[in-house]
Amino acid sequence: MAEHRADAWQARRTARLLLRPPAAADLDFVTRLFARPELVAHRPDPTPDTPRQSADRLLRDIGHWREHGFGRWAIEAEDGLIGFGGVTVSGEFEGLNLSYHLRPESWGQGYASETIRAALAFAFGDLGARRVIGLVRPVNTASSRALERCGFRFEREVMLHGAPTNLYALTAPP
Question: pTM of the full predicted structure?
Answer without folding.
Answer: 0.91
